[in-house]
Amino acid sequence: MRADDTSEYVEFVSARLARWHRAAYLLCGDEHRADDLVQTTVTKLYVHWARARGADNLDGYVHRMLVRAYIDEKRLAWSKVWLMSATPERGASGDTGVEERDLVVRALAELPKGQRTVLVMRFLCDMPVESVAAAMRCSTGNVKAQTARGLATLRARLGEAPLAGVGTGKGGGLAE
Amino acid sequence: MTEEYDERADDVRVLLETAHVPPAHADLARAIAAGGAVRRRRRYAAVAAATVCALAGTAAVGQALDRTPGGERLEVPIGETVTGTPAPFSACTVRPLPPPAGKGVLTGQVVADPTGRYAAASLVQPDGTVRPVLWTDGEPALLPAAGDGAQPRAVNSAGVVVGTSSTAGGTPLAWVYRDGRVTKLAPVDGYEWWVPLAVDERGDVTGEAWRGLRFVVVTWPRAGSPVLLTRPGDVRGSGVGGDGTVVGTRGEGADPYVWHADGSGRALRLPPGAATGQALAVRGDWAAGWVGLHPEASAPPARPVAPRAQVTESDKRVLDMLGKAAGGKLVTAPARWNLRTGQVTHWPERATPATAVNASGWVALPGDGGPTVVSPGGEVTALPGPADGYPTTLSDDNRRLYGERVPRSTDADSAAKQRLMNGGPATELLMWHC
């Protein structure tokens, strides 16, 4: 890859890592798997950078890669091959006060995988219904139905907690 | 019905935007190294396919080759980029890093994370004690005390700082600052001293420990006791990359050396005329440092062997070894290695080591009339600010460098003393923003 391309890649990716990590974490609800998903995605993006950089909607392209990496278990298994050497020890997070802060994360985690995916893709990544459908390899009707069900379930789960209060937590990591 | 739900989803957007998310640990240098390997494999496959297809004379040949344009030939920029992005480093500004207000004077070497957002150094407080300082986007914050004479050694892009100091009893103390607290790293049993050199994006710490002149590379996993990565020997580390690659020197003559997280190692190539060398920093596929040339092999007059970068407590010993091995007759020149191809580039017209390298292969070259940066293709760009500005870090996005002012010549001490007398800092730390 040419030096300019690499710099361009680094610049593009550095500015978005925190956001992709947020999406990945909300999708899978696991710190280490989220890191793996993002690492897989940025590695693949590097491999295809020459082509990807010309995409009309590069952000959408990367979001699609991220969802595919999440959905496609085979792909994840492939990524494990070279991520294995770097897999950190699990557990020992030592985090206190998690209860309050990750109310949303837990509520999301309790949703079926499809509903969780459409909510994150549509409302965090701002992907249109058609793109989500393409990434998930399903119909737009299916995406809409899952969105409706996901929103309803999420709201019901969080019903007891006032929504305004949830958002005033400490916020997450690097992004802020 | 679904449209109705969708329209009212602003509350969910806010929830998703503000939900607590743990810090990210993805590593760009690792992505570039791993992605580069995949691309190379594909290119070989494409070339092989092309060879087969060529026999059949199909159009697939062109396609297979089209998929892999340009290759990795970084030395030869091809064509013009028709983007509106200005050239890297074309508009840099430099300013001093401020100390925490009214708390003392800055000292020590500045370290920074690969994004350039975080930087760390030390502060001498009015009572003489030394505390670590962490800057976030140039804003200083005093960290909790971390033993005597705390000096940060590295910081990662989550703001985790590792450093060295000593206990009241004079024994080594390696520490890590994380989540608002300083904690001690476990001692390395059987060694006299140990120094953390890097903290990666996962929070694992890598450094070195030594006993006499026997060095080992050691890693402190996020959870658990220190693990020795090399056998005690004459190799010693200077810089650590995000993927656990360590660079440094080997042997009395100081040969540049690299070894990997699995314990395997190899010598780095020396350019013609060079007898010694040391890699000081590594990032992804690239390492930076210096080589020692025989004076007859380099045109300019003799210069002292005085590498001054990433110095650890034991650098003096290595320099002594160097002096003995070379009879004090070598001159230094900055150098850059491509770890993948093994290629070495050096700049014999300059004397100060290459002090920093980033994931795309840009290096910082201080000294010799003023600090500069050199692109992977060899283009040199001068950095603004004082001629004695000495950058020691270079961010992956080419936007931030950190360093200090290092007055050359013998009046360095008196200049520092003068600054102290005038109430100024012992060290002037700098931040370049590009």
From TrEMBL, chain A:
<feature type="domain" description="RNA polymerase sigma-70 region 2">
    <location>
        <begin position="17"/>
        <end position="78"/>
    </location>
</feature>
<dbReference type="InterPro" id="IPR013249">
    <property type="entry name" value="RNA_pol_sigma70_r4_t2"/>
</dbReference>
<dbReference type="InterPro" id="IPR039425">
    <property type="entry name" value="RNA_pol_sigma-70-like"/>
</dbReference>
<keyword id="KW-0238">DNA-binding</keyword>
<dbReference type="Pfam" id="PF08281">
    <property type="entry name" value="Sigma70_r4_2"/>
</dbReference>
<dbReference type="Pfam" id="PF04542">
    <property type="entry name" value="Sigma70_r2"/>
</dbReference>
<protein>
    <submittedName>
        <fullName>SigE family RNA polymerase sigma factor</fullName>
    </submittedName>
</protein>
<keyword id="KW-0804">Transcription</keyword>
<keyword id="KW-0805">Transcription regulation</keyword>
<dbReference type="InterPro" id="IPR013325">
    <property type="entry name" value="RNA_pol_sigma_r2"/>
</dbReference>
<keyword id="KW-0731">Sigma factor</keyword>
<comment type="similarity">
    <text>Belongs to the sigma-70 factor family. ECF subfamily.</text>
</comment>
<dbReference type="InterPro" id="IPR014284">
    <property type="entry name" value="RNA_pol_sigma-70_dom"/>
</dbReference>
<feature type="domain" description="RNA polymerase sigma factor 70 region 4 type 2">
    <location>
        <begin position="102"/>
        <end position="154"/>
    </location>
</feature>
<dbReference type="InterPro" id="IPR036388">
    <property type="entry name" value="WH-like_DNA-bd_sf"/>
</dbReference>
<dbReference type="InterPro" id="IPR007627">
    <property type="entry name" value="RNA_pol_sigma70_r2"/>
</dbReference>
<dbReference type="InterPro" id="IPR013324">
    <property type="entry name" value="RNA_pol_sigma_r3/r4-like"/>
</dbReference>
TrEMBL record, chain B:
<keyword id="KW-0812">Transmembrane</keyword>
<feature type="transmembrane region" description="Helical">
    <location>
        <begin position="44"/>
        <end position="65"/>
    </location>
</feature>
<protein>
    <submittedName>
        <fullName>Uncharacterized protein</fullName>
    </submittedName>
</protein>
<keyword id="KW-0472">Membrane</keyword>
<dbReference type="InterPro" id="IPR014262">
    <property type="entry name" value="HAF_rpt"/>
</dbReference>
<keyword id="KW-1133">Transmembrane helix</keyword>
